[in-house]
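Deviation from plan, reported transparently: 2-acetamido-2-deoxy-beta-D-glucopyranose complex.
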Amino acid sequence: MAGSMSFGTRVRMLLVPLLLWQIPAAVASSSSTAAETYDYIVVGGGTAGLALSTRLSQLLPNRSIAVLEAGPAAPHSTNILIPGLKGSNLQGPHDWNLTTVPQARLDGRSVTQPRGRVLGGSTALNLMVWDRAAAAEYDVWAQPAFGDDAGWGWESLYDAMLRAENFTRPEEAGVYGDEGVAYGGPVQTVINRYVPEQQLAFVPTMVNLGAPLNLESLDGNPLGAGRQPSTLRPSDYSRSYATAYLPLAGSNVDVLTEATVATVLFEDEKNSDGELVASGVTLADGSVIKARAEVILSAGSLKSPQILESSGIGNSSILSAAGIQTLLELPGVGENLQDHVKVQSVYRLKANYSSFDRIRYDAAYAAQQLDLWYLNETSAYDYTGSTIAFLTWSQVAGANTSFVPSLLNSTAVHSAIDKAKLSFLNESTNAPALELLFSDGYFGAASYPAANSSLYGANFFTLIAGVQHLFSTGSVHVDAAAPSPATAAPRIDPRYLEHPYDAAALREAAKYLRRVAATPPLNTFVEAEYEPGLEVQTDEQWDEYVRQAVSTLFHPTGTCAMMDRAIGGVVDGRLRVHGTANLRVVDASVIPVQISAHIQTAVYGIAERAARLVAGS
Ligand SMILES: Cc1cc2nc3c(=O)[nH]c(=O)nc-3n(C[C@H](O)[C@H](O)[C@H](O)COP(=O)(O)OP(=O)(O)OC[C@H]3O[C@@H](n4cnc5c(N)ncnc54)[C@H](O)[C@@H]3O)c2cc1C
Ligand SMILES: *[C@@H]1O[C@H](CO)[C@@H](O)[C@H](O)[C@H]1NC(C)=O
Ligand SMILES: *[C@@H]1O[C@H](CO)[C@@H](O)[C@H](O)[C@H]1NC(C)=O
Ligand SMILES: *[C@@H]1O[C@H](CO)[C@@H](O)[C@H](O)[C@H]1NC(C)=O
Ligand SMILES: *[C@@H]1O[C@H](CO)[C@@H](O)[C@H](O)[C@H]1NC(C)=O
Ligand SMILES: *[C@@H]1O[C@H](CO)[C@@H](O)[C@H](O)[C@H]1NC(C)=O
Ligand SMILES: *[C@@H]1O[C@H](CO)[C@@H](O)[C@H](O)[C@H]1NC(C)=O
Ligand SMILES: *[C@@H]1O[C@H](CO)[C@@H](O)[C@H](O)[C@H]1NC(C)=O
Ligand SMILES: *[C@@H]1O[C@H](CO)[C@@H](O)[C@H](O)[C@H]1NC(C)=O
Ligand SMILES: *[C@@H]1O[C@H](CO)[C@@H](O)[C@H](O)[C@H]1NC(C)=O
Ligand SMILES: *[C@@H]1O[C@H](CO)[C@@H](O)[C@H](O)[C@H]1NC(C)=O
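Because the crystal trials were delayed, the predicted structure below was used instead.
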């Protein structure tokens, strides 16, 4: 084992140049090197922020752009770059470590909310799934209640999403078709070359349960089961994330890391239309950077609302409680928080199979696999989930979905957002209600068996179910109780499972996982159900398990919704904050209605479109 470790060290030293990224000269690690004034200030060097500022620099080569990122650059972090180490990023050095307030329907449990605090934002931490929702879900954004006449909808957003990507076709035939992928963009995507044997059984199992095989699931019709792309560079199987845009940026972009923005500054006088005019930002250290043209917030769904509120834009009763003077009454700020939640079951593999868990308990194997990764040979450290099924309720064999028609008939649905979600329960839209993800190894609600337990050394796989259109709606606001609300952690209350549909849907989803694991060919790998365990049988027991096991699927959206001001919107169809002349939000928070997908493709697409909206105005 020692020999293998030292070999690994040598190999790693030899191969380090593979990981030496092109770091653009303009990335500086201190705001002290910043100019006093730029044309555009982009707050947040995350997913949307880097895509937007890069495209803006290409479209406006003679205008200056500053990107202000709270975290460091960390271009060589192996925890970020090596896919198999992705779990180490949660509560790791580049996580904001946010958490919800205690959730009433989860027996008072709080749920962690990982968010990237590093150049690249949450794409540096995410699980690298690359997928898309149904076309109808993006078309809703063009309705008058949402983006109205600013050109949103599937056609334009699909085009924008495709500009982000460079797909490398697998050599293996029959794993992905032609539609739904694109070439030439900065973010590299592949169909993962490493798939555990038990994971290969998942798609045929879903087909046996009646799901269609879908080899073009990113083309606007995601229904069915298949292997999906992951954001990995084919050249070395390292993570490809938002920093991949930066080499395309012109010298007119300054990326300043470790620069935390506290507030947006405004001119003393409103313009002739009675709108606030943004003039720059203040940083947490008190320094000021001025903007001649625009300030654009790309701080993400859990931070952009906090910056607006700290700057005097929001619900005045929330602001005054936090000691903030209201400049602009806009009560939608921080409201309409919509997240995906997941529940999972864990299965123990038969003794003659192993899983990703082996990396936990077999150090020699882990070292050998890590060496293979550094040699760019197929390795367990390549692993990303990436085998997925998206289903309507009627495709969920045997589920008791009596709660769906009662909701469709409900007279209690008033909001434009909920009406859109209801429309997606009509299966003619092709919108999935449920996502199932295969995740190799233990990924349950408790923890892998302890070193002194008899199950230490066992191998597991996890089936994850995510309900796609949930009706519980939450909020994120400045924490009035914090000494400095502008920079403290925000108060996040997703109100998980408060709507009865959500609780019933999660229960049926959890029950279905047992059925999947009992269906061939997947069942031939299963020794026993480990979580929740066969003692859970009645609906009441399943409800209790869901309360204990449910957690975020990491997709908060809607907190600066692109929506009509009269119904709680924060930005208009051109992503301008209502009531301001030149302050925009460009990130996941503008998504008005949660989509049935992992959301990074949509965020890149929003940023690609936003660059053209900004440059064109
Ligand atoms: C653990 C995890 C797993 C996920 N898995 C997937 C997946 O597999 N597939 C998928 O499609 N999506 C996934 N997602 C979701 C997806 O990655 C995010 O939704 C998306 O990256 C959000 O982009 P954004 O631009 O809105 O925000 P972010 O990318 O989070 O960017 C916000 C940036 O702003 C910075 N910032 C915040 N406040 C300030 C401030 N005051 N001053 C300066 N800078 C600031 C942050 O540090 C950050 O860099 C996952 C997310 C997480 C956290
Ligand atoms: C940009 O500036 C250069 C000179 O610095 C000038 O030649 C060019 O015409 C300008 N381009 C645009 C699009 O304004
Ligand atoms: C989050 O927690 C990790 C582990 O304790 C720590 O290294 C990191 O600095 C924390 N992040 C922030 C923003 O404080
Ligand atoms: C796209 O990927 C191919 C390899 O599949 C590579 O040759 C090409 O350079 C990539 N293009 C971009 C723009 O990254
Ligand atoms: C890494 O491996 C992939 C095949 O999985 C190959 O396409 C690529 O060229 C390799 N990269 C290098 C630098 O050899
Ligand atoms: C503003 O916030 C207060 C306190 O949370 C709340 O009672 C009120 O309904 C909010 N106003 C609007 C218009 O949302
Ligand atoms: C594993 O063992 C089971 C019986 O427990 C057997 O059916 C299966 O074929 C074995 N698989 C392999 C790969 O040996
Ligand atoms: C379906 O669930 C409802 C409660 O949600 C229950 O009243 C009904 O009896 C169930 N039907 C079946 C067939 O289990
Ligand atoms: C709505 O309720 C009516 C009356 O109870 C019933 O006839 C109808 O089938 C319901 N519609 C749906 C979609 O379930
Ligand atoms: C579902 O949509 C189709 C097509 O738009 C429509 O004909 C049908 O009435 C809808 N069903 C329900 C229950 O609303
Ligand atoms: C295993 O070790 C933990 C501490 O690491 C201890 O709390 C626990 O009681 C031990 N369990 C057994 C079965 O020895």
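The radius of gyration is 24 Å. We consider this an acceptable substitute for the interim report.
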